[in-house]
Specification:
This protein has two domains: 234 residues, Type I PLP-dependent aspartate aminotransferase-like (Major domain) (Aspartate Aminotransferase, domain 2); 121 residues, Aspartate Aminotransferase, domain 1 (Alpha-Beta Complex). The two termini are 21 Å apart. Strands 1-9-8-5-4-2-3 form a seven-stranded mixed beta sheet, with helices on both faces. It has a three-stranded antiparallel beta sheet with strand order 7-6-10, with no helix packed on it. By secondary structure, the protein is an alpha/beta fold. The chain is globular, with a radius of gyration of 21 Å.
């Protein structure tokens, strides 16, 4: 059996967790939290990193930091995970779904300006499969209309756009360390802050709305309730697990990219390039997802079934948010999302993780695709 995903372990996770247990400090913001945050700040060239319990939690912090009120609008793709929208809906904001590009599967930057209204407060971009959105155009639109940009970089650690790491371009950004991601800690995430005006308040929101962090740094003699917030900190055990992964981050990503390249080379002469991942020339990806497009939903369903029968697990991706019950209840989509609808019916993802014997997958592909 070849699973779709197997969480990768470096071998140092238990050693780090043992150090936490010996320290008797299990709560967040300890030594390993500091190591992880500093590594991410330095590697991504981000001004401030706060570890969170999940990428969802980081997105919820973004919604609070942007002071969103009921009725405010945020523009985003429909082809994304529910957390991208739900974090803002929780503040009463309205997700405005726009279509994606057929090549990168990212938000179509040419459609954003047409979706802006007097209620628009932010643009939420999602770097699908670790491949960058067209950030120059998006930031120019944001500057023109005085909007915030949030990068949902859940899948994009160490991916780049024109030499800049994804997550370092927008005003705020979020990472995921869920077990399905390149770098994982079971659950976990991070809020990345590039605009200094958000730094102090983000720290308070993360600490249940208190100025507790300032107290521990000796800046105040007691801490108290100061703002809205919640318990967004991960435990030090989670951070210890994550540190073992970050120390091997580039090695893990390089091994994934080798497999990604092998997949691409296998398909390159068998199917049209428009049905394969597209990586713009001025970007670099991190080998997070390898996908390809089949002719129809029926063809995809049949392919996934046949692969499962021979012990190879593949899967599709998102049911578009605009076609869901929640999407219709909380969001709006002023224009057709025909590309999103088409891609969501045809896209299939292949197993991709360090240690995968890709030749075994090729054998199944030859049988199920008759190639």
């Amino acid at each position: 059996m070849i699973p779709f995903n197997t969480p990768y372990l470096t071998g140092n996770e238990l050693t780090n967790i043992s150090k936490v247990l010996e320290s008797k400090h299990f709560a967040g913001d300890g030594t390993f939290t500091s190591l992880c945050s500093k590594w991410l700040e330095d590697k991504l060239k981000v001004k401030k990193v706060l570890l969170t319990q999940s990428c969802t939690a980081a997105l919820e912090m973004c919604a609070i930091l942007l002071n969103l009120k009921p009725g405010d609008e945020v523009i985003m793709p429909s082809f994304t995970f529910v957390s991208t929208a739900n974090a803002f809906v929780l503040r009463g904001a309205v997700p405005v779904f726009v279509d994606i590009r057929a090549d990168t599967k990212n938000i179509d930057e040419n459609l954003i300006e047409g979706a802006i209204t007097s209620k628009t407060k932010a643009i939420i971009v999602v770097h699908y499969a670790g491949i960058a959105c067209e950030m120059d155009s998006i930031m120019a639109i944001a500057n023109k209309f005085n909007l915030a940009v949030v990068e949902d970089a859940a899948q994009a650690i160490l991916s780049e756009y024109k030499g800049q790491k994804l997550g370092s371009i927008g005003h705020l950004a979020c990472l995921s360390f869920h077990e399905t991601k390149n770098i994982q800690s079971g659950e976990g995430g991070a809020l990345l802050i590039n605009d200094e005006k958000f730094m102090d308040r983000a720290e308070i929101i993360r600490e249940k709305g208190t100025n507790r962090a300032q107290f521990f740094r000796g800046q105040i003699d007691k801490y108290t309730w100061y703002d809205v917030g919640s318990s967004f900190l991960p435990s030090e055990i989670t951070a210890a697990f994550l540190w073992a992964q970050l120390e091997k981050c580039e090695e893990i990503i390089n091994s994934r990219k080798v497999i990604w390249d092998e997949y691409y080379n296998f398909f390159e002469k068998k199917i049209h390039s428009s049905n394969l991942p597209f990586v713009p020339i001025d970007t670099s990806h991190n080998g997070h997802i390898f996908y390809f497009l089949l002719e129809s939903m029926e063809h995809r369903t049949d392919f996934i079934k046949k692969m499962k029968e021979i012990g190879i697990y593949t899967t599709f991706h998102y049911i578009p948010l605009h076609s869901s019950f929640g999407g219709n209840l909380f969001g709006k989509f002023p224009n057709e999302l025909s590309v999103t609808d088409s891609i969501s019916e045809k896209l299939v993802r292949l197993p991709l993780y360090p240690g995968l014997n890709v030749n075994d997958v090729f054998s199944g592909l030859k049988i199920c695709l008759n190639c």
